[in-house]
Design brief:
Layout: H1 2-10, H2 25-40, H3 46-62, H4 64-67, H5 71-85, H6 88-91, H7 94-109, H8 111-114, H9 119-136, H10 145-162, H11 165-179, H12 186-204, H13 211-224, H14 241-270, H15 274-281, H16 289-297
Helix pairs in contact: 2-3, 2-5, 3-7, 5-7, 5-9, 7-10, 9-10, 9-11, 9-12, 11-12, 11-13, 12-14, 13-14, 13-15
């Protein structure tokens, strides 16, 4: 009896198994870090990716605050994989593609997480969503492309709604600045114009994001684009393939300029001190184009040409089916 009692005293009681939901924060953080690293690695296999995305999704569902410290890395990893998601060689992998898009839907639906996006993350995310949609417009014969395009469209709309709007606008303007002169990027630029105009629509409804970053980016865009054609200029029918290509490029840059001008008009209409704000972010000597345009809009100087009208309807071809209208 005494031996059994001594034996009982020597044995430590076994603790009950700790449920996963009650894991210590450090354990959850470690799992999240490992999941993000798996998403970042190009060597990760399909099963590893699915486990990593399930881990991130579970932690997102439990608390978006837990994911916040990894948001920048997570955005970069998801963005990089989204860019490949609609390629014909990848789109066939239905399970991984669906899991990735579902994760993107969860991330962009969280307003607190999206509010943390900076300009770099916003540009990565917008690029990873809009560029694949532009490339996939012609993938009508690829299985699953229709479903993925529809999901990409929803994710893009959530980015426009939940991310800081000045970040989204600046990212779109910067991407248009880089791609406007490339004929191969026309579909991509058209979708970016749609994104900017959706933000303008919210501004007209009373939601006005910080103007200074947008003014700075508008200045850089205007300085990069060729000057607007005189109002009296009569367009000529291109006689050679080279002239036709140049005309298409000119049409695209014109549409970008018009969209940028509509945005500028909205900023000036809401900010009587737009000139002073511009001086805080842009050198005003020698006088840049954007300063002349702001003064015209404020009525301080006469306009040498009629103000730019809202962007014209996108060229009819190639047009995605109505169920695939992007952004």
């Amino acid at each position: 009896r005494s031996a059994s009692a001594a034996s009982a005293r020597c044995q430590s009681p076994r603790a009950p198994p700790t449920p996963r939901s009650a894991d210590k924060p450090s354990s959850a953080e470690a799992r999240l870090a490992a999941a993000v690293a798996t998403l970042q690695s190009q060597k990760s296999g399909a099963s590893q990716l699915q486990k990593a995305m399930a881990e991130v999704a579970e932690q997102l569902l439990a608390s978006s605050e837990a994911v916040a410290p990894k948001m920048a890395l997570l955005t970069a990893a998801v963005s990089e994989r989204l860019k490949q998601c609609l390629l014909p060689a990848v789109v066939q992998d239905t399970q991984v593609s669906k899991a990735l898009v579902n994760l993107a839907l969860q991330l962009t639906k969280s307003a607190p997480l999206m509010a943390q996006l900076g300009e770099a993350e916003g540009q990565m995310l917008l690029l990873s969503l809009v560029e694949p949609m532009a490339q996939a417009i012609r993938l009508t014969d690829v299985a699953n492309a229709e479903m993925l395009l529809s999901s990409f469209n929803i994710v893009t709309l959530q980015v426009l709604q939940n991310a800081p709007r000045d970040v989204v606008v600046c990212a779109a303007l910067r991407l248009m600045q880089e791609r406007a002169k490339q004929n191969s990027q026309r579909d991509f630029v058209e979708l970016l114009i749609k994104c900017v105009m959706k933000i303008v629509k919210t501004m007209r409804g009373g939601a006005h994001p910080p103007a200074r970053p947008m003014l700075r980016q508008l200045h850089e865009l205007f300085e990069t684009l060729p000057p607007p054609a005189p109002a009296s200029a009569t367009p000529r029918e291109p006689a050679t393939p080279g002239q036709a290509e140049a005309a298409e490029a000119a049409e695209t840059t014109s549409r970008v300029r018009e969209a940028a001008d509509v945005l500028l008009q909205e900023i000036v209409a809401h900010h009587a001190d737009a000139t002073a704000m511009l001086g805080e972010v842009v050198p005003l000597k020698p006088q840049p184009f954007i300063l002349r345009r702001v003064l015209q809009l404020q009525g301080h100087v006469a306009s040498a040409s009629p103000p730019a009208s809202p962007p014209r309807a996108a060229r009819p071809a190639p047009a995605p089916p109505s169920s695939r209208a992007a952004a």
